[in-house]
TrEMBL record:
GO terms for molecular function: hydrolase activity. The keyword Hydrolase applies. It holds the Pfam family Glyco_hydro_43. This is Glycoside hydrolase family 43 protein. Keywords: Glycosidase, Hydrolase. InterPro entries: GH43_arabinanases, Glyco_hydro_43, Glyco_hydro_beta-prop_sf. Pathway: Glycan metabolism; L-arabinan degradation. Signal peptide: none annotated. It comes from Paenibacillus chartarius. Belongs to the glycosyl hydrolase 43 family. It comes from the Bacteria.
Length: 289
């Protein structure tokens, strides 16, 4: 067993599975986040969100898998009674891309799903996340990297019902510089990272996403003015979390409490998952003590 503070994960994602009374934790392995060849993706499981059993090998690429480094930001969603992992991968000479993997159980093993990556072939992309709209239509929201466009971009693209591919062209939702709290890096680039969609209790659709802030890596809140995925989107003036941490997601524990997990600090290899209890108030999130 490991305490959550001993797990060197970036980009943490926690999936509650109520019928098992178990939480599953996925993330980017800190040791190989930037250099080296990762084995794949691991998963931990817990009954209390504090002590975690594992790691278990959730994904191990077979010979011939197209990517060999930068295995980033795995997140797992239950959809039509299967489990789908959205994750970012890279290979020399190929743009970074989001690939979908599938399994019959949250612990895996996960295997590539569909014909290949679901982001455009010539775009540098990362951090795809699943969103199912009010009509049951699946979408992927993802980032186009500042490495290619300088001002990082956030897109949505419709997925096929079986999540095997895309329908139509990606739709631009916003650029990173549109958020008042986002600041450029040393070379003038604006970062887009880690989108996660959430429907507030009053029906408002919001998005957590991360960029650089005044005090380092930060996570802000964007709001859909139409209540629909394609927006238009506006941004809160101040970050929701500005303490050199981010790439967060929201979930409810088995008692109904709303929890946020993200990694902090944003310094390799010191990054760790943290879990913060929140509540909705005044159209935003506040920390519970």
């Amino acid at each position: 067993m490991k305490h959550i503070s001993d797990i060197n994960f970036r980009d943490p994602f926690i999936l509650p599975v109520p019928e098992e009374g178990m939480y599953y934790l996925y993330g980017t392995e800190g040791a190989t986040a930037w250099k080296g060849q990762p084995q794949g993706f691991d998963v931990y499981r817990s009954k209390d969100l504090t002590q975690w059993e594992g790691p278990f090998p959730a994904f191990r690429p077979e010979a011939g898998f197209w990517a060999d480094h930068h295995y980033w930001a795995p997140e797992v969603h239950r959809y039509r009674n299967r489990y789908y992992m959205f994750a970012s991968f890279k290979a020399d000479g190929r743009p970074r891309a989001t690939q979908i993997l599938a399994s019959d159980h949250p612990i895996g093993p996960f295997a590539p799903h569909g014909a290949g990556p679901v982001t455009p072939d010539d775009w540098e992309c990362l951090d795809g996340t699943l969103f199912v709209d009010v009509n049951g239509v699946p979408w992927m929201v993802f980032c186009r990297e500042w490495l290619q466009v300088t001002d990082g971009e956030m897109y949505a693209v419709q997925l096929t019902p079986g999540l095997t591919g895309t329908i139509g062209d990606p739709v631009l939702l916003f650029k990173a510089s549109e958020a008042p709290w986002s600041v450029p890096g040393k070379e003038g680039q604006y970062v887009t990272d880690g989108p996660y969609l959430y429907r507030m209790q009053d029906g408002e659709l919001v998005m957590l996403w991360s960029s650089l802030g005044r005090d380092g890596y930060a996570m802000g809140l964007a709001r859909s003015e139409s209540g629909q995925l394609l927006g238009p989107w506006c941004h809160d003036p101040e970050p929701l979390f500005g303490e050199d941490g981010g790439h967060g997601m929201l979930f409810r524990d088995f008692h109904g409490s709303l929890l946020l997990t993200l990694h902090a600090p944003n310094v390799n290899p010191q990054e760790r998952p943290i879990v913060i209890e929140l509540e909705e108030a005044d159209r935003t999130f506040i920390r519970r003590r």
